[in-house]
C-alpha cells in the first residue's frame, strides 16, 4: 500500500468513526452543535462582518493601495512584505481570527502580493481580538482583569516575533522569480495617484461593489460557522468516548518536559482543538496562575485546529500554502508562552505595586467593566445583527438571481 492510499484509508476511517460516534451519542452531538452555533451566532458573525465588508470596500476603492504605499518603507525592511501588510496586520489584530487570512487571500487574488509574500503575511496577521482576550478570557474565565494586559501583550508580541522569524521564509524561491528592488520613501502625491488609479480601474458601480462585499463576507462567515460547529462537535465527542484522555498523554509529556503542572494536560489538549473551550478549562484548572497563564497564552497563539481549518478553507481559493501558516501557529504558541514568563514580573506583578506600574489606570474596576460590558453587549445584540445581515444577504442574492433569470 503506497502512501496516498494509506492517507485515503485514514481519512475514510476517521469520517466513519465520526459518523458512528454522532449516531451513537446524539445528545452530546446536539449540545455541542448548539454551543458552536451560539458562539458563531452571538459573537463571531456580528464581530467580524463589519470588518470584512469594510475591508472589501477599502480594497475595491483603492484605499488599501494608498495605505500600502505609505507603509512600504516600514513593512518591507522589517517583515519583507509589501506595505499593504500593515493594513492587514492592523485589521487582523482589531477584528480577530480569521480576518488576517481573509484579507491576505483577497490581496493575493488582486495580485497585489506574491505567493511567498502572502505566506509570510498570513503567518503573523492572524490574532485574537482584544475584546476576546480581555472580556472573555481574562475577565470572563479567569475573573482577573489585570491578567488581560499580560495575555494581550504576550499575544501581540508573539505575532511580531513570528513576523520577524518568517521574514527569511521563502528567500530562495522568491529569488528565482523576482529581481532585487530598491525602495525609496514614497510621497503623499504618489500614494494619492495610486489611490486614484485604482479607483478609476474599478468599473463596478458603488451598489455592485457594496453588494459584492456583503455577499463575499457573509459566505466566508457561513463557512467559518460550519467549521466552528464541526469542531465543537468533534471536540465533545472525543471527550465522550474518552479519546481525549488518551491523547492527553501527549500533552502530559510536553508539560512534564517544560516543568509545568500535569493537571493542565486535558485543558491544553482541548485548546489545541478549540481556543474558547481550552481557555475556559485552563482557567478552572487546579494550578498556580503563572503556568495557567502560560498555557492560555499558548492556546491563544496556536489558535486551535478549528481556527486553522477556517484559515485553510479561506486559503483554498488561492495558491497560498497552508503549511507555513501551521508552522507559524506552533511558533506563536511557544513565543506567546515565553513572553508570559518574561513579562510576568514587569507587567502583572507590578500591577500590585503602583509606583512601578505604567498600566495602573487599566487595573481599576472601571476599565474592567468596559471590556465586560462590551463583551456582554456583543453577546446580547449579536443574534439581531446576524439575522439582519443574513436577511440583507438573502435579498441581494435573490435580486441578482432574479436578474440573471430575466436576462437568461
From TrEMBL:
Keyword terms: Membrane, Transmembrane, Transmembrane helix
Superkingdom: Bacteria
Organism: Bacillus nakamurai
Residues of the Nucleoside transporter/FeoB GTPase Gate domain: 43-141
Cited InterPro entries: Gate_dom (IPR011642), Spore_IM_YlbJ (IPR014226)
Spans through the membrane: 48-71, 78-97, 131-157, 209-234, 326-344, 378-398
Protein name per its UniProtKB record: Sporulation integral membrane protein YlbJ
NCBIfam families in the cross-refs: spore_ylbJ
Short name of any one Pfam family annotated for the protein: Gate
Entry keyword Transmembrane: yes
Lineage of producing organism: Bacteria, Bacillati, Bacillota, Bacilli, Bacillales
